[in-house]
Automatic annotation (TrEMBL), chains A, B:
InterPro entries, per database record: FA_synthesis (IPR003664), Phospholipid_synth_PlsX-like (IPR012281)
Entry EC number(s): 2.3.1.274
Swiss-Prot/TrEMBL GO biological process terms: fatty acid biosynthetic process; phospholipid biosynthetic process
Keyword Metal-binding: no
Name of protein: Phosphate acyltransferase
Keywords, ordered alphabetically: Acyltransferase, Cytoplasm, Lipid biosynthesis, Lipid metabolism, Phospholipid biosynthesis, Phospholipid metabolism, Transferase
One cellular component (GO) term of this entry: cytoplasm
UniProt family annotation: Belongs to the PlsX family.
């Protein structure tokens, strides 16, 4: 899936210290990534003492395609975003994002603290003209396909206009990352009729109909496969995500309990093992790792804190795809052009 | 689990026409219910021509414990609540609820149209003093246990005070239906810290702390088993429910696909069949059928429209439990007594 043409001189800044496992996971993921994407380079950001030896080894193999970008601090996984902003100006998370701002990278990836990543990315990169609030988008499996959902928690009190912007950004994100021409955009609601839902959602549906998006209306079930993008308030999106994770974990637990009931059931599990393994691979959450922070002047991708090297590699791939297909420029152009902006109390930012 | 003492002269009014299957499902469910709960009687509500013969047969078996309550109309599953209110004054759904109002039954059960059921129940029975909005509560499987969730869609724009009332009603519901003394009440939020979530949820957490409920704070995952009751806005609750249903259906579909891949995988499925069957039984949604409309002057239980006789029977049992353990009186007493009411723009209703 490498697209060497568009990846020309693509550089990813990777926060190597973030996440539960730090360099133990990020460096092996980077090595595999450099191997599979010959057109992309990596800036490995973090504490030199933790990275030096391994980066030197990778340089012998990949030459100038990997470089160390020193950062003396690390943002804690539970650290308050305000504290990270104030006291961690030389953190790997922040330095990675600053590489985009400085023009040395087109995308940044971190498995660190979500709140700190969003706050620092907004502060350092700024929001694109016409976008009031950046959003977090992720991809999930869906019937016969997959679905992108946004927002997943960056914005807990959204207006209809915010949801309209999420629809536009989500559509452009899927176009960029998956080269889908007119992604179907749905609005998460508790009924399919227009009269359903709360005030904000009803207004958002009306606004989305005024855009030139391929808006398919209300969607009740994000897993139905009816839409390529599902738009929702960050509170609702986060509940849907946590419900998904919680239910999947509970079902896996119960299934394991049933197969571990006794010797006979264990034998049955053994007999069905190849099928169960294949099933597990199809719904493996690691494949869906890598949430994109959209609406910023740069591509920022958030990996799960607990990601392993395979999962972290997925986040690296997603960042490379988004940057290679110029996600930021697409959103910038769209917001500067065609769409009329809905009346909103927020001051209009003139597009540059 | 029959509690003959408290079921003394308990009567359930059952809408026999509602749901996708009508009398075909409701009557066999009633027969099994009368058999397993010797202390309870049933008013079978619906069109005499559809019910007469079967009710006569049941009367020969159960004597005065079953009686036909005629209703000439049926509310359509997709009919607008306003239309049902205006044009279906003699519907089985409405007549069933009127049995409570008339003192001929203590609870009503219907598999009909949710919106119409809620509207008609509110109109006919009225809301209890101190309760601004009735809510819909259901039980779901959770880790090592089960969890009750409310609201599931009756109220899409809730205030913190509404959520406080849902907490009180949910707690009393679990006490009544399951004889749990101090159910753990959690607030659905997108983080466990107090500062997380939107404005309404943060205020609701503060209000819930002022009650004498066993409030355990924010809950991120309804399936975690951390709470007996999880309180949320109806929009969010409905999204969580639909996400659950959608994900479960998708996973079941993928698992089936994997086992149907070829002859070998089918044989593996056969080998593991007893375990898979047991697993399915444990998470069978039919076991959790029967959502309770709480906050009304009467027990009203909503069955899934597509319920089979087993599932409909679960809804009947839930209604009998709630009525036998005086759910309505418990809520009435609590709201009239101990708890201070939070300031709210809604006019205080004096308790009777």
């Amino acid at each position: 899936m490498t697209d060497s043409e568009s990846e020309g001189s693509l550089v990813l800044a990777v926060d190597c210290m973030g996440g539960d496992h730090g360099p133990q996971v990020t460096l092996p993921a980077i090595e595999a990534f450099l191997r599979r994407r010959p057109g992309v380079s990596v800036l490995a950001v973090g504490q030199p003492e933790a990275l030096e030896a391994e980066v030197a080894r990778l340089r012998r193999r990949f030459g100038g395609r990997i470089e160390l970008a020193p950062a003396s601090q690390v943002v804690g996984m539970d650290e308050a975003p305000t504290s990270a902003m104030r006291n961690k100006k030389d953190s790997s998370l922040r330095v990675a994002i600053e590489q985009i701002k400085a023009g040395r990278a087109q995308a940044a990836v971190s498995a660190g603290n979500t709140g700190a990543l969003m706050s620092i990315a907004r502060f350092v990169l700024k929001t694109l003209p016409g976008i009031d609030r950046p959003a977090i988008a992720t991809v999930l499996p869906a019937r016969g396909s997959r679905v992108w959902v946004l927002d997943l928690g960056a914005n807990v009190d959204c207006t209809a206009e915010h949801l309209r912007q999420f629809g536009i950004m989500g559509s452009l994100l899927v176009s960029a990352v998956e080269q889908v021409e007119r992604p179907r955009v749905g609005l998460l609601n508790i009924g399919t009729e227009d009269i359903k839902g709360n005030q904000v959602v009803r207004e958002a549906a009306a606004l989305l109909r005024t855009t030139d998006l391929n808006f398919v209306g209300n969607v009740e079930d994000i897993y139905s496969g009816q839409a390529d993008v599902v738009v929702c308030d960050g509170f609702v999106g986060n509940v849907a995500l946590k419900t998904t994770e919680g239910l999947a974990q509970m079902l896996a637990l119960i299934l394991r309990e049933e197969f571990n009931r006794n010797l006979l059931t264990r034998l049955m599990g053994l007999a069905a093992y190849p099928v169960l393994k294949h099933f597990k691979a199809r719904v493996d959450p690691r494949r869906y790792n890598g949430a994109v922070l959209v609406g910023l002047r740069g591509v920022v991708v958030k990996s799960h804190g607990g990601a392993d090297a395979y999962a972290f590699g997925q986040a690296l791939d997603r960042a490379a795809e988004a940057a290679a297909h110029r996600l930021v420029e697409r959103i910038e152009q769209k917001m500067a052009g065609a769409w009329p902006r809905a009346a909103s109390p927020v001051t209009e930012v003139s597009s540059s």
